[in-house]
Amino acid sequence: MTFYMEQKRTAAEKALFIKSGPTIKRVLSSEILYVQCEGNVSRLNLKDGTELVCIRLLKLFEEDLSGAGFIRINHNMLVNLAEITEIRYINARKRQVVLSDEVVLDVSYRKWKSVKEALLGRK
Hints:
Elements: E1 3-5, E2 15-20, E3 23-28, E4 32-38, E5 41-46, E6 51-55, H1 58-64, E7 70-74, E8 77-80, E9 84-91, E10 94-99, E11 104-107, H2 109-120
Antiparallel strand pairs: 1-2, 2-3, 4-5, 4-8, 5-6, 7-8, 9-10, 10-11
């Protein structure tokens, strides 16, 4: 197994154990900017600029990080809501979020409404 979860630290923060290559690293959910998945290979992009690569489906990360402030913005990405600094509606076909490290990520048409609602605190 490539992913292990420690007991909840707080209601909003979780500690994960990620197997990346020959090492297993403990990562707090608050340290994760976003998770990007290509097939069953996931890349965790952390605040300190490092990237961890592991074999795990994005759906499983989404389940394990539920309640920790993460939202799916498209088919391949899960983003930490606390790291979103701006949302952009470019046109009918292009929507984006900007993260605290100035990374710009595309938001799918289907996820746009839920991203806006999550950021504005509406349901």
